[in-house]
Design brief:
Layout: H1 7-21, H2 30-34, E1 40-46, E2 49-58, E3 63-71, H3 80-94, E4 99-105, H4 109-114, E5 118-126, E6 129-137
Coenzyme A (COA) binds next to helix 1, strand 3, helix 3, strand 4 and helix 4.
């Protein structure tokens, strides 16, 4: 768990910028980052180096949105993303959230399917790339 605007939070912004924004030729606006104060920030460290992060945004009625899921390039495909979302689901369930959802990049849909997320609806564009809405009921 990482505090908003802490040095560790700044590391997550850098990782997200590198993995999720720069490849698309875009960056975060100050306004977008300012709104992250009420989010839950998770970081996964290996030997004191941040290798993965994600954000949880609490919503009404037991819902929680998972977003900004990023694993550093050289650590992808090693089970780190799966472990991180399992932790996020456990934390959410422990804190009485019952419904996790996300807007999944189409390229990442197989990853979420492996963790038993369900697709609803058709492809839509977000940050100019195709996404699908996915959810999972938490026990
Ligand atoms: C998508 C991402 C978060 C996945 O994390 P990861 O650590 O690479 O994934 P894992 O190694 O934990 O994979 C978990 C499972 O999903 C599968 N998987 C992961 N990415 C996949 C892909 N692109 N296609 C097919 N299967 C995939 C793995 O094979 C693995 O299956 P298994 O449980 O049967 O072994 C990571 O690759 C990433 O940061 N990608 C770039 C940014 C991104 O797209 N983020 C998601 C935005 S919605």
């Amino acid at each position: 768990m990482i505090d908003f605007q802490s040095p560790e939070y700044n590391e997550t912004v850098e990782l997200r910028r590198k993995i999720l924004r720069k490849p698309l030729g875009i960056d975060f606006s100050e306004d977008q980052l300012a709104k992250e104060g009420s989010d839950i920030h998770l970081g996964l460290y290996l030997h004191n180096v941040l290798v993965a992060c994600l954000i949880l945004t609490p919503e009404p009625e037991g819902k929680i949105k998972m977003r900004q899921v990023a694993v550093d390039a050289e650590f992808q495909g090693k089970g780190i993303g799966k472990k991180m979302i399992a932790f996020a689901e456990q934390w959410s369930s422990d804190n009485n959230y019952t419904y996790m959802h996300c807007n999944a990049r189409k390229t990442a849909v197989p990853f979420y399917l492996q963790s038993k997320y369900i697709i609803v609806g058709d492809t839509f564009l977000e940050v100019n790339i195709p996404h699908l809405y996915m959810y999972k009921k938490l026990s």
